[in-house]
Amino acid sequence: MPAQILKGKPLADKIKEQTRKEVEELKQKGIEPFLVAVQVGENAASKFYTDNQRKNAEQLGIKYELRELPAETTQEELIKYIEDLNNDDKVSGIILQMPLPPHIEAREVQWKIAFEKDIEGVTPHNMGLVSFGKPRLAPCTAVGAYELVKSTGIDLTGKEVVVVGHSDIVGKPAALLHLNDLGTVTVCHIGTAKAGKTPEHVARADVLIVAVGVPGLIKGEWIKPGAIVIDIGINEVDGKIVGDVEFDKAVERAGIITPVPGGAGTMTTAILLRNVVEAAKWQAEKR
Ligand SMILES: Nc1nc2c(c(=O)[nH]1)N[C@@H](CN(C=O)c1ccc(C(=O)N[C@@H](CCC(=O)O)C(=O)O)cc1)CN2
Question: What whole-number distance in Å separates Cα of residue 131 and Cα of residue 262?
Fold first, then answer.
């Protein structure tokens, strides 16, 4: 029997509605959540994301500004810009859009974001909270994938969770979030692929999360019958958006599978905006 298709929109809509209510409550207390996105130079994928941020923030009553800096901005100038945003009490959340121009070391700048305003969860403090099982502002796409898995009702205790991809912003935090729920977590990466072992790990997965950015990397026949498959890949092939999982074959084996587009990616902005509210609350606690 073909898999159940798990779309992201219903859960994302629920999160946005809850966030909209929380924004109203904060405003009644005199707190206005305010998101600032910082873009250095131009990038099409990033523009698509910031357009979505603006549209959704406006719908939820969150103040939004996109600050566009020239591609020639130096690392020192960008750090100063971030520090000014850290010191601006009106700003609740900061997102530094990727990619940055090659002369800027992303981590050097991201780590300067005040952790209470770090709505992407990219600072050591927030990543540390994820690893201690106390996430507060955690990476959006990883949280989106985790919450989609949880929405299926699965008890992760002892389940084989296989994460393919070990990026700081998706693979690693996704692995930690599932580990916190007592999943037995395996992370596959380039070393696993070089050893030719990705298929055997994937074949064990009760829950498979894929975030690599290689179209059709995960073959349908590798998937364990009945598995939950969360595909985070967004790739353009011949003008079509496809994921990292060979969907047509995977859908015949999986129990539940997210589509691309319309699956896990749909959760990212919802979680980002929920994080803006959480950030505003965190700062209010400290005043
Ligand atoms: N600091 C960051 N910069 C950028 C990121 C990021 O996550 N953090 N993402 C990329 C581009 N990208 C993923 O690689 C991305 C592009 C667009 C969206 C987005 O708008 N998602 C929508 C849903 C879209 C859909 O229908 O599937 C949403 O969440 O509502 C997310 C991620 C660029 N730079």
Answer: 29
